[in-house]
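Notebook entry, structure prediction.
Reason for the run: the old model in the group folder had no record of what sequence produced it. Starting over properly, with the input documented here first.
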Amino acid sequence: MALTNAQHDLIMRSYEEKQLRNQTILLQHYKEIYEKIPEIKELENSISFLSVQQAKKLLDGDEGALDQLRTQIYELRTKKSLLLRNGGYPADYLEEVYECPLCKDTGYIGSKKCACFKKAAIELLYAQSNLKEILQRENFSTFRLDYYSDNYTDPRTGRTSLATMKEAFAVCRQFADNFGEEPRNLFLYGDTGVGKTFLSNCIAKELIDRTYSVIYFTAFELFDIFEKSKFGKDNAAEAMNAHIFDCDLLIIDDLGTELPNSFTISRLFLCLNERMLRKKSTIISTNLSLDTFVEYYSERTFSRITSNYKMLKLIGDDIRIKKKLMNREEH
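New structure, fully documented this time:
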């Protein structure tokens, strides 16, 4: 996945800042050494003078000038290292300083991105996703099926909570594993506390770790940004508004907890429709029943969702209550 130009530029600016800091540190080192060991400054001047002199000889056709220069510079640098060590400094104290010696703080090794660039990209994507802290706790590796029961059955389908969640987990795992092949969308619905947000977070972590851009908002936060962007002339909201349409995965959590009105209804349709046109993936979670959802957001929006989203109904007891009870039993 390619970062947006804005994201790439932001990371590259951080490398420029590193290079500037590195140069400042090196200049401070030189200033300190020249004051405490002035002989080193004389050696540096000698190296510069020799380089110029031998370069002239080389241009004049002296084929042995280069080898002679190498020998002389080696001897002078050896003296410099000895002076540094005798003064209590490491031999490389006057060498370039890098946070990443592999790419020398450029972000690239040749034409390929350095490992530190990928790390910086992931950190940026986490920061922009609004999910950095929670994804350390909620991900596929921490997901537990023992919160779901074979005794809890959906009267309509006859399926148990455990069987339903096993299938939902498999669908979400496949969604993450195959992400990028083609745009996919998920609609998670069911009662409060059955794991809808947790599954969304599982997918989010997998994708961010692979440097896909993911943005998470509760419905209230999303519509607040839309409102500020449209009516408030809020620059930050306008910038985020662009990310909402362009990010690889948008997660809209708790749809229906905001106050539905003509503005939210029209903006939701616009957001979902625009992302589908741009071939971007979206996950929606809601506590609303399907009938109530249609009542809130219109047949047109519901039709667009049912024809373009994988619908997953989750059932069971409130996991948050179960976790508290199980933690008490374990202690």
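Summary: The first strand starts at residue 108 and ends at 109.
The old model has been moved to the deprecated folder.
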